[in-house]
Design goal:
Elements: E1 5-11, E2 28-29, E3 32-33, H1 34-42, E4 51-55, H2 59-68, E5 72-75, H3 82-87, H4 90-93, E6 99-104, H5 112-125, E7 129-135, E8 144-147, E9 153-157, H6 164-167, E10 171-180, H7 181-187, H8 204-211, E11 216-220, H9 233-253, E12 257-258, E13 265-266, E14 271-272, E15 277-278, E16 283-285, E17 289-290, E18 295-296, E19 301-303, E20 306-307, E21 312-313, E22 318-320, E23 323-324, E24 329-330, E25 335-337, E26 341-342, E27 347-355, E28 358-359, E29 364-372, E30 374-376, E31 381-382, E32 387-389, E33 399-401, E34 406-407, E35 412-414, E36 417-419, E37 424-425, E38 430-431, E39 440-441, H10 453-457
Parallel strand pairs: 1-4, 1-6, 4-5, 7-11, 12-15, 13-16, 14-17, 15-18, 16-19, 17-20, 18-21, 19-22, 20-23, 21-24, 22-25, 23-26, 24-27, 25-27, 26-28, 27-29, 28-30, 29-31, 30-33, 31-34, 32-35, 33-36, 34-37, 35-38, 37-39
Antiparallel strand pairs: 2-3, 6-10, 7-10, 8-9
The protein binds uridine-diphosphate-N-acetylglucosamine and calcium ion (CA).
Uridine-diphosphate-N-acetylglucosamine binds at residues 10-13, 54, 56, 76, 79-82, 84-85, 104-106, 142-143, 156, 158, 172-175, 201-203, 229.
Length: 458
Amino acid sequence: MSSDVTVVILAAGQGTRMKSRMAKVLHRAGGRALVEHAIVAALGVAPPERIFVVVGHQAEAVREVAEAAGVRTFEQKEQLGTGHAVLCGESMLAGLGGQLVVTVGDCPLIRPETLQVLAERQRKSGAAAVVLTADVPDSTGYGRIIRDQNGAVEAIVEHKAATEAQRAVKEINSGIYCFDAGEFWRHVRLIRPDNPANEYYLTDMIGILNGAGLRVAATKISDAGELLGINDRVQLAEADRILRDRKTRELMLSGVTIESPETVAIDADVQIGMDTVIGPFARILGDTVIGENCRIGAYCILHDAALENGAEVFAFSMVSSSRLAANAHAGPYARLRMGAEVGEGAHVGNFVELKNTRMGAGSKSMHLAYLGDSQIGSKVNVGAGTITCNYDGKKKHRTNIGDGAFIGSNSTLVAPIEVEGGAYVGAGSVITHKVPAGSLALGRARQVVKAGWKKKEA
Ligand code: UD1
Ligand code: CA
């Protein structure tokens, strides 16, 4: 990475064809907003303090994403064209010499390596600008690359302004360039809005630099797919599929087994350790971190989850913002949410929901329970059908269960409540008072047997 590179990411446009109230660059593919992908690629060539996102439509929301990624922004209040967009940053950028890479916020498949190749080409060739291009079978809508006999780039002609002969050109402008920053700022004010759209086209810079006797080169990439620009939701889905494919491939090559990878969705920032096995149709999202030797069953959904080595989540479970310690098990059909923690070797079984609850090492709740706002010690047995009544209609209250306690099946623990270590709660109890250590609490009607009752009825 050269500290001499500045990157401008054009992201001020609305993206009309998305048919959305949300700015195009905020739409997500592969687990990131489109503009985040552009930022990640830019970080491959420039340090964060030299990366600028041009914001316009929904400036605040786009700025938030940029700032969260540690990069800077400037605003283009009116969208008067791609050339105008860069010009809006003149006061911040013109003093920065070296190289100026301009890229777009709606091209999520561009790899950091590609921007590196582009910048290196500009540095070594001494051209005033290098354009990233590709040959595509259908160049409709794109700017065409017009080359001279020596292969240098003479001009970029937008589709609408192109002649028949120019439209036949298959080499297209990606909208991504690397300029010599000095030459860029020296000439940028020569761009005129002399086109039917009345816009300041950045592409005009190519002709302008040529006119000043400077050279413009092109770097053609073989994988045109990398340049896929997102204009509508069909292309968004296509980009999402490609990004997910890249992610599963990368994980498989690093030692993760993924069954039926084409059915699995794993977000870009997810980390998974060696020898972990991911079942079909799993969705592993957000900042989830999974250790080694874990198992994720079919159809599980994990979001911002943390699994230590050897943890297993069986089929059809959901884990969000929750943690499983080493060798803990959850599911099938378990739901862990909002800060649930399953301790080392602890087991949570089918139709058990944990919310904001910590369960200690070796504890078990195997069937049909709701455990909310609770602190559960180690080696506790929570019987089938146990419910913590944590909500009184106004406030949430806590349940504490000490180490080694035994909660009989179908118990109702009315919080705030405490069951101390080693205490027993008889099955079917409604517990409203503290159960001291080692004692047995029974909170249910005593069974009555009416002998001969059937006969009397007859
Ligand atoms: C642009 C190029 C075209 C190229 C194509 C590649 C120009 C004139 N044309 O066309 O040669 O083949 O990209 O996809 O540059 N934006 C702003 N402010 C503006 C206008 C646009 O920030 O005033 C941003 C948009 O949000 C978008 C990017 O710039 O991220 C590209 O703009 P867009 O209108 O999509 O350009 P194209 O018509 O696709
Ligand atoms: Ca575009």
